[in-house]
Amino acid sequence: MPYKRRMRTENPALHFVLGSLPLIALVAVLPLAFGGEFALAEAMRQHKNAHDLLREIAFFFTDWGNPAFYLTFLGILVHGVRTKNENLTKFALTYAACQLAICLCLVNLTKMALGRPRPLTGETVYHLLTLDPHFHSLPSGHTADATGSALALALWRRNMGLTISLGVLLALMGFTRIYLLQHYPSDVFFGWAYGAVSAWAIFTFGLKKDTPAHE
Known about the structure:
215 residues; mainly alpha; Vanadium-containing Chloroperoxidase, domain 1; 76% helix; Undecaprenyl-diphosphatase; PAP2/HPO_sf; undecaprenyl-diphosphatase activity; transmembrane helix
C-alpha cells in the first residue's frame, strides 16, 4: 500500500493537473461571475482605481513573480555545476532553452501577429501584425512564463504540498494580469497553454525518467 500511494503521488500527470487547476478555475469562474470578459474588465478597472494599496501589491507581484522563478532556476544551475550533478544542470539548461523558445519567442510572435488590444485600452478591434505593446494582449506572456516555471518545478519535485502552493502562486499571477487590465481571462488561459507546453517539454527533455522524483 505505501508503495502504491507513493506511485500515485509521484505521477507527473497528477502534479501537472493540480498545479494548473487553480488558474484554470480562476479564468473559468471570473467571466461567469461578472457577466463576460468586458464586464469583468470594467469591474477590475473600478476596483483598481479605488484601492491604491491592492493595486501596488498587484504590481509588485506581477513585476517580481517571474524574476523569483528565474533566481530559483539559476540557483539550481549553480548548484548543479558546483556539485557536478549532471541531472540538475541539464534540468536548468533545458528550462532556459524551452522558456526562451516558447514563452519568449513564440508567445511574442503570437502577440504581434494577433494584435488583440489590452483591456486598459478600452478598444475591441484587433490590430494584426503590430509592434504596439498596447495590442499585445493575447496570449499573456507573464502567465506563460510563470506556468512554465511553476509546472516545471512541480513536475521535478512531485511533492503535493509544493505543487498546490505553486498552483496558487500561478493563479495569483494570472489574477494580477487581469486585475491590472493587462489581459482578459482568455489571454491568461492561452498564456497557460503555452507555458504548459514549455513545462512538459522541460520535463520530457530535461529530466531522466529512471530517477526518483525530486532527485
